Amino acid sequence: MVCEVSDVRAVSEIYIQSVCRVNFYRKETDMEFIVYEEEGAVGVITISREKALNALNSQVLDELDATLDAVDTDKIRCLILTGAGEKSFVAGADIGEMSTLTKAEGEAFGKKGNDVFRKIETFPIPVIAAVNGFALGGGCEISMSCDIRICSENALFGQPEAGLGITPGFGGTQRLARLVGAGMAKQMIYTARNIKADEALRIGLVNAVYPAEELMAAAKKMASGIAAQAPIAVRNCKKAINEGLQVDMDQAIVIEEKLFGDCFETEDQRAGMGNFLKKKDDPTKVKVVEFKNA
Ligand code: CO8
To answer: What is the per-residue pLDDT across 226-267, written as a single tens digit (0 to 9) for each?
Structure first.
C-alpha cells in the first residue's frame, strides 16, 4: 500500500522507510519546526525544535496550526503527536519569547496557543499524544488537548508556571482539573511540582507507560487499531464524548442520540452490521470490513 501525503507548501516527496509492507512517506516542506509523516491511515506530527527541548514559540505554534489544516482527513483516520529526540516531548512555551511580553501581548500569546490546542481537541479524528520526555507547562497542556496520552518511562509532567510568575496559559487550569480532578490539579499547579510517568499513570493523566524505545510502536499500534474502525463512527464518538462533557446529562444523551442516528444509512454502518450478520452464518469467516468514511 502506498501512502500519499497531503501537506502544506510541499516541495518534494521523499521515501523514508518501509514498515510492515506499508510505505512511510515524509514530505519536505519549508517548515522549520514541524515534521509531518504518514503511514497508511495514520499521520505523525513531530514537534522538532530539539535545541530548545521542543519549546513552543510563535513559529512552532503557527507551523503546527498550518500542519493540522493540511491533514487530509478523508484519508488519515488518527494522528499521533510527539516531540523530536529522546529527552523531551515539549518543555513548555518559550520562556525567552514570553519574558518581555506586555499584558496585552501575554493575553494574545495565550490565545494563539489556545486556538491551536482547541483545534487539536476538536480535530475531527482522534489525536494520540506520545509523550517522550519532558511535558512541562505548555507541553503538559498540549498533551491534554489530545484525546489520549501515552508516555515513555522517562516522561515528566508538570505545570511549573506559578514558579515563573504566571498561571498556566494554554488551558492547563481547565484541562488538568477536568482530567485528574480539581484537588490534584490544584496541588500540581500551586506547588509547581513535576510528576514522573508512574504518578501520571496513577492519577489518570496518561493511559499507559512504555520503555522509551517502545513508545512510538505502541502509539502506532493504537492509532492503527483506531484507524481500522468505522471512521464516521469514531468521529462521532469523539464529538459525543467531548460535547457531552460540557453539558448536563439530559442534554448529553441528546447529543449522543443525534450522533448515533447520524451513523445510520452510511456505507460503513451497512457494511459493518452486514458483515457481522454474514459472519453468523459462517462462524469461521474472518471479520474484515472495508470501511469507506462515507
Ligand atoms: N523555553 C525556552 N527554552 C527552553 C525551554 C523553554 N520552556 N526549556 C528548555 N529550553 C532550552 C534551554 O534554555 C536550553 O537552551 P540553551 O542550550 O540555549 O541554553 C535548552 O533548551 C536545553 O535545556 P537545559 O539546558 O535547561 O536542559 P536540562 O536537561 O538541564 O533541563 C528542563 C531540562 C528541566 C526541562 C529545563 O530546561 C527547564 O526547566 N525548562 C523550562 C521548563 C518550564 O518551566 N516550562 C514551562 C514554561 S511556561 C509555559 O509553558 C506556559 C504555557 C502557557 C503560556 C501562556 C502564554 C501567555
So the answer is: 999 999 999 999 999 999 999 999 999 999 999 999 999 999
Under 8 Å between Cβ of 294 and 266: yes
Residue 86 annotated among the catalytic residues of the structure: no
Tell me, yes or no, whether 155 lies in a domain.
yes
Task: Give strand pairing partners of 12.
Answer: 28
Residue 161 Cβ inside 6 Å of ligand 1? The answer reads yes
Domain count, the chain: 2
Report yes or no on 288 lying in a domain: no
Q: pTM for this one?
A: 0.91
Place of cell 520562556: 95
- Among 53, 95, 107, 195, say which to mutate for ligand 1: greatest number of ligand atoms within 8 Å of CB: 53
Contact 120, 68 (CB under 8 A): yes
The CATH number covering residue 239 comes to: 1.10.12.10
Domain containing 27 equals 6-227
- The protein residue with its alpha carbon nearest to ligand 1, atom 2, reads 94
